Amino acid sequence: MPAVPPESLLSDSQRRLVGFALSLLALLATIALFVVMFGVLGRLLAFFSNVLWPLAVAGILALILRPIVEVFEHRLHLRRTGAVVLLYGLVLLALAGFLFLITPPLVEQILDFIAFIPEFWQNAIQYLQRHYPQWIELAQRQMANPTVKKIVDNLLAEAQGLASHMVPTLRSAGLGALSVFGFITHVAIIPIYLFFFLISSKDPTRKLPQHLTFLSEPVRNDVVFLAREFIAIVVSFFRGQLLIGLIMGALLAIGFTVVGLKFALFIGLALGILNIVPYLGTIVGLSIALPLAFLQPGGGWPLVAWVLGVFCLVQVIESWFLTPKIMGARTGLHPVVIIVAIFFWGTALDGILGMVLAIPLTAFFVTAWRLLKQKYFRAHV
Q: In angstroms, rounded to a whole number, what is the distance separating the alpha carbons of residues 105 and 363?
């Protein structure tokens, strides 16, 4: 008599439902693990930031400047230490020239800009009173309402708290004379770290396989590849972004000076530096330069149009010439992905460091995902 197969505990539809539930649970657990990991990493970075950021700055600068040292070493037949000393000398000469030529007018424009802020605010109020008096009346009537006034006061308090976190004063950040001295010490030690990083001519990942012997050879090769790819992305991004930011700052400063915008040198160079974080310089620039062009003495809609034209021209040069020539396709990220990545990593790593590292980190994870998908998740035909 043939054996009767045991009756299944679950039907096919119930098994599919249980499988889906377990897969969803595993996905949620993975997401929760990543959230906890990023939270812990952000807290560790914040706690050890005074130790880590000088090392990070020196390491990134070393990766960027290493090709220049190698050119000096091979073309001029210098020892490694001599090439590094020559690079330091040239940098000091460039800084001295910058301080001698650019610093006096730049400092003057910064001080004039600070002194102009009250006048700018008064011009804005007067313009609204002349052209939109109903808005002023509406605001005055609403501010007479205790409930609205309380809401506005709460919003102002929140804004002040946010500003104190973004640009902390010495007191709110707990920075006394000792902390200021500590910050100066951390800045001063960066050239020392950089010197020792530069005199090392070896690949920073050369010994990585020796420390990963517990992994199988294919996995170890993938980890080494990803580490080298991450270093290449960081070098390409920061080297290219710094160069692009300096060129954009110079172009904006020249363009603003030509069209007659006040404080053109200061605003142009500042926006170029802010472009190290993608789109930050453009957003801040539009929110500062356009109102200034409209409300400055002799300004108005024609000057706003000229300033906007300078912005558009510089953006076209950056998008169609500078980025393709300097950055190439190293990151290859969509603009929407870049914006989301900046906010995500800024939140995950709790600060401006995450925003600065957003693009290389995102590009690295995209590269890692492509490698995993190709080698491990590829469907077997």
A: 39
In sequence order, which ranges of the chain are alpha helices (DSSP H)? 12-47, 49-75, 80-101, 103-131, 133-143, 146-166, 177-199, 217-259, 264-274, 280-295, 301-317, 335-348, 352-356, 358-375
3-state secondary structure of 165: helix
**What pTM value is reported for the model?**
0.65
Q: pLDDT tens for residues 178-235?
A: 566 667 777 788 888 888 888 876 667 777 777 777 777 777 888 888 888 877 777 7
Residue 265 CA to its chain's centroid (Å): 23
Structure tokens given for 50: 């005074």
Contact 260, 303 (CB under 8 A): yes
Taken in order 234, 240, 246, 249, the sign of the CA dihedral is negative
Q: How many whole angstroms separate alpha carbon 68 and alpha carbon 147?
A: 63
C-alpha separations of 131 from 127, 136, 147, 261, 354 in Å: 6, 10, 28, 23, 43
121: confidence class by pLDDT, cuts 50, 70, 90: confident
Q: What angle do CA 345, 57, 367 make, to 5 degrees?
A: 45
Max distance between CA atoms of the chain, in angstroms, equals 105
CA distance 334 to 346: 18
d(CA 230, CA 237): 10
- The answer to whether 270 touches 276, Cβ cutoff 8 Å, is no
- For residue 112, give Cα distances in angstroms to 105, 120, 370: 10, 12, 52
